Each structure stands twice: as C-alpha cells, then as structure tokens.
Amino acid sequence: MSTAVEMPRTRTHADVDGERQMLRRAQLVTERKATTFAFACRLLPSDVRDDVYLLYLVFRTLDDLVDERGPDAAERVLAVAQWAADAAREETPEVLVLESLARRHQLPRQAVADFCAGMRQDLAAERFATERELDRYCYRVAGTVGILMASLLGVRDEAEARAAAAALGMAMQRTNILRDIDEDAAAGRVYISEEALGRHGDSLKPGRRAELLRAQIARADELYEDGLAGIDYLRRGRGAIVLAATLYREILREIERRGLGQRPGRAVVPSHRKLWTVIRATLRNG
User: Fold this and answer.
1) 6-10, 249-253, 279-283: lowest mean pLDDT where?
2) 87 is a domain residue
C-alpha cells in the first residue's frame, strides 16, 4: 500500500505580493493608531520590526472590531481563539498573519487564547466588581500582548520575562483606561472597578475624582516598575521597549499636571514633553 505525501506548496508571486500588502497595512495602522508605539518601533532590530508591526495589526484589528461592535467581531475573535486551541477554524486575515508569525517564532498560544477571552469580555460589556477582576481583564487584553512581544524579541528567563512583559502591558492598559475615562463614560463604558469607586468617592465626574485617579495612577506606576525591572530579560529591543513604556507612562504625569481630573477630556502629552522624555530615556539607557 502506498501513502501519498503532500508536498509543500510553492509560494507564488501572488503570495509574496499579498504578504507585502499586509505588511504595508500593518505599518500604516501602527503609525496611525499608535504613534508612540510606532516611534519606539524604529529602535527595534530591522529583522524583527516587521513582525512586530504584523502582531500589532492582529490585535489592533480585533480590538477595533470589538470596540466598534463590527457585525463579524465575534466570529473573527472566535477564529483566532480556535487557532490558539489548534482547532479547525476559518482562515481570517488575523489567523493567516498568526500562522505566518508562528513559522518564525514560538508564539505562546495560551496568551492568544487569553487575549480572545478579554475580547469576549468587551463584547459582553462586562463590569468589574474588584481590582483583581480589573487586573485580570488588563492582563487579558494587554498583558498578553506584552508576552507575545517578548516571544518575538527573545528572552533569557522565560518565566521572569513573561511576568515582566505582562506587567508592562497591564500598566499601559490601565493608563489607557485613565486617559479615556471621559470618552468611555460618554459611550456608556466603565473600566474602573466598583471596589475602587466605592473606596474613593463613587464618582467619575470631573472635579470629584482626584482621590480615585491618584490611587489608580499609583497602581499603574507599580505595574510600570515591575515591567521595567524585567527589561534585561529581553534578548533584543530593550531600548525600544523602555522608550515606549517611558513615553506612555508620561500620560499619567500629564493627568497629574491637569489636576487629577479637574476638567474633562483626554490627557495628551505635548510634543515638547515627549521630546524631553525621549532625551531623558536615551541618556538613562545610553
């Protein structure tokens, strides 16, 4: 009895063109949607930078679909979750990118599965009773991305590196929550835990949330410290990650400068402060 052997398919010009178009889209999305991250990416080694863009594209696309309640959001999240479980799935654009990345890197699929669990929480518009529940959500939607980034850059101690990468992602997500607190409230979304609200005045209104923001900023700063303490576990790209974290953390300082929510609106770090932050980070890590 003979056994047929399936030969690998030869890559065509169409395959190459499709990959180039996907990479170009990934670069454009990163530059448009994450200017701080895109700036830091320029410091990454050239042979891994493109894969970082592609990884960002996958998670940003899913996050936008869920946030905007796209009609196929749940199906696209499910396809990625099935890919993470190594189960039969639809070959969505996100799955195809992940398959391509997995041929070059050992992607931790559990982190991808956990990210999808966070997306399902967003689809269900879940609220968080406790800070522990909020931490779990922040891990799922952002800590996992930190872990996957670390897998692309390479690590020296997997357990320690993953813990630090997760902490840094969680810190950035908590920063997002505080930056967008008014925008989210206007859309009927609340990402502050009921426990924190009850402890610090039970109000998100401008002028009445200083104590709440002070405590939430302290928690985010703790996570930044935990994350930055593990930078040396990365084999490559340490300067880029430090710069991204330092620039993002400056949003917390801007919230403080603006009086801890005395007036509504998103805290935006002025360009001159970003430049000074870049200079300080460069000198510190030079």
Assistant:
1) 6-10
2) yes
